[in-house]
């Protein structure tokens, strides 16, 4: 019997490299996976095209599921370049929407379902190692991922007595084609592969992580 047999897992951002890796890892471990993204995409699991910035649509989509045992909030992104003093509203809102609002809306849709089931659950968010301190020309990104970390801690404190674990992982640089293109002179062997990071997400969603609440786990490879 696989670890996640009979578990329903919602994974956001499955049109992206990390989201697809996480969804595939859960699928291969026996879970029923529903992958969500604003971009239509195909995968070896069920997928749903959905704008997670629309709370009403998000709640309707989750309500249509029989249950949700695990939520992996993988949707997110990165941008840099502007100084804080030069940051536009568009850049700030883009990072907050992509990294925070998508997570928040899924949490608001999923938590009532988990609570109503009485079976507990697991929520895993994606923070960032770089969000542990400010970095020049990365203000909006660092701020948004810092919000993810603090929200994870708050949510964990609120839900642990319901048997719902909430934790997050803090990747450094993920080994993707885009990152290799943007940093061609880097030592890619030091980066974390999407598949390796997916295994950490699966651990935090497993029974082995039952005692862990509100943790921010660094996943940095050799960087």
Task: Provide an overview of this structure.
This protein starts with 7 loop residues before the first strand and ends with a strand. α2 (about 55-65) runs parallel beside α3. About 40% of the residues lie in helices and about 15% in strands. The protein is α/β, with parallel strands linked by helices. The model has no long low-confidence stretch (mean pLDDT about 95). Strands 3-2-1-4-5-6-7 form a 7-stranded parallel beta sheet, sandwiched between helices. It is globular.
End-to-end gap: 36 Å
Gross morphology = globular
Succession of helices and strands:
EHEEHEHEHEHHE
Number of helices: 6
Task: Please outline the major beta sheet.
Answer: 7 strands, parallel
User: How many β-strand stretches?
Assistant: 7
The unreliable regions are none
Q: Could you say which structural class the secondary elements and strand pairing correspond to?
A: alpha/beta
**What's the Cα radius of gyration?**
17 Å
Mean pLDDT: 97
Order of strands across the biggest sheet? 3-2-1-4-5-6-7
| Fraction in beta strands | 15-25%
**How helix-rich are the residues, as a percent range?**
25-40%
